[in-house]
Amino acid sequence: MEKYSCIPCGWVYDPAIGDPENGIEAGVAFENLPDDWVCPLCGAGKEEFEKI
Questions:
Q1: This model's pTM is above 0.90
Q2: pLDDT digits (tens, 9 = 90+) for 35-49
Q3: Is the dihedral of CA 7, 11, 17, 21 positive or negative?
Q4: 24-31 long-range contacts, Cβ below 8 Å, gap at least 24?
């Protein structure tokens, strides 16, 4: 699974870790995140992320 970086702040979504503080378990691919999921650091939407 690919990692994605938040363009505005640089936070990296790593599917091996997920986003446990926001209810996203490890193993969830970026493409499978809910449409309303936002960067936990700056609040940017999924459209503000790029594959790294």
A1: yes
A2: 999 999 999 999 999
A3: negative
A4: 27/1, 29/1, 29/2, 30/1, 30/2, 30/3, 30/4
State both tokens at 16.
């091996």
Task: Count each helix (H run) and each strand (E run) in the chain, helices first.
Answer: 0, 3
Phi, psi for 45 (deg, rounded to 5): -80, 170
Pick the closest to residue 42 from 8, 5, 12 (CA basis): 8
Give phi and psi for 3, each to the nearest 5. -90, 150
Distances (CA, A) of 1 to 8, 29, 38, 48: 22, 6, 19, 18
Q: Which two tokens stand for residue 5?
A: 């970086």
